[in-house]
Amino acid sequence: MQVMENLVRTTVGMSTNIVWHECSIGKLERQNLLMQKGCVIWITGFSGSGKSTLASMLNRQLHCRGHVSYVLDGDNLRHGLNKDLSFKAEDRAENICRVAKLFADAGVICTASLISPYRRDRDACRALVPDSMFIEVFMDVPLKVCEERDPKGLYKLARAGKIKGFTGIDDPYEPPMDCEIVIQLKDGKYQTPKAMAEQVVTYLEENGYLKA
Amino acid sequence: MQVMENLVRTTVGMSTNIVWHECSIGKLERQNLLMQKGCVIWITGFSGSGKSTLASMLNRQLHCRGHVSYVLDGDNLRHGLNKDLSFKAEDRAENICRVAKLFADAGVICTASLISPYRRDRDACRALVPDSMFIEVFMDVPLKVCEERDPKGLYKLARAGKIKGFTGIDDPYEPPMDCEIVIQLKDGKYQTPKAMAEQVVTYLEENGYLKA
């Protein structure tokens, strides 16, 4: 399929000289080199639900198994990718998804963790990424639990009216209806980062993203 | 150095819980896994100077040697990264550079080929990327030669006034004054793509970007 696509692109490129100069090494070749299938792992959930913790531990576990992975994190991207650029707010998630898609195309397992509260925005991201390369992970942690944890003190600020439009307080969160992975509490408590990451790694293994 | 930085970030992370959750696997660890040093190879030059051709062949040569590389190309990015987003024109090169920087941070040898005619814009990109991770490649091909080749027919359109602000015709190109690599004509003719790519690979080898 990819090879076919490349052939088509190459033909287009030769006839018009306009696009897809780089088609000679395609996604499949990169997958074979890296022994893994690039994909976008999109972690969504309330602030304080453990998105960044999961992303970090997942990255570590994949790295230790010799896989090439990278984390695009709301916290660190704020200091880089989207800083100072002329973005509309609603384009931010989409821009991150476009970048994640490029990483996946490059063969990297790319994790993006963003609250991404609206279903339509997450679906728009999914639609950008080719079939089966988008893996949505829902941190299914009740608001109450996240607010009790409040690791950044943001819920306190939001309740005091010092942050407006805060997800869960004065802005809605729409949980996924049909996502690939749901991370849940165990006996009402957060799972360990290791256990959460293993759940995702198992999914990747069982669905052919990781080769030996 | 990187380890130090990570330690600092980790400390910051633990005390405030705000940033750099992902520091546990850093740039150095990724370099060791991939046996290469991620970097941004920024190819600049007139339309028709061979930027995309070089990028494509370089990507192929690196891949065949087992290196992880990726091309961000003005032609393909136009269909993806910057499409429909609320970008000011002057932010485009910078956004591509930020993405390339993320790839380099992930350990990938990331080639970006853009006309990028203004010195201040290229310098701004260089300033975004940590020391020695930005390699500027100048396609030193005279305008006359590029216009004779005119592979996309764009010079013809620009001369006819159908494209405005076209680099070399009614918009300036400022050649680099001190870049890492200069690709020149040989006996007044384009070098082969293979020869051009080998010049860059040799630079990467001699400067420690590629390990065996």
From TrEMBL, chains A, B:
The name of this protein is Adenylyl-sulfate kinase
Q: Sorted alphabetically, which Pfam families does this protein's record hold?
A: APS_kinase
Q: What protein family does this chain belong to?
A: Belongs to the APS kinase family.
What EC identifiers does the entry list?
Answer: 2.7.1.25
HAMAP family linked to this entry: Adenylyl_sulf_kinase
Sequence ranges assigned to domain APS kinase in this UniProt record: 37-184
Which keywords does this Swiss-Prot/TrEMBL entry list?
Answer: ATP-binding, Kinase, Nucleotide-binding, Transferase
PANTHER family in the cross-refs: BIFUNCTIONAL 3'-PHOSPHOADENOSINE 5'-PHOSPHOSULFATE SYNTHASE (PTHR11055), PAPS SYNTHETASE, ISOFORM D (PTHR11055:SF1)
The protein's role, per its UniProt record: Catalyzes the synthesis of activated sulfate.
Gene it is expressed from: LOC109707326
Enzyme category, top tier: transferase
Q: Name one GO biological process term.
A: sulfate assimilation
Q: In which pathway does it act?
A: Sulfur metabolism; hydrogen sulfide biosynthesis; sulfite from sulfate: step 2/3
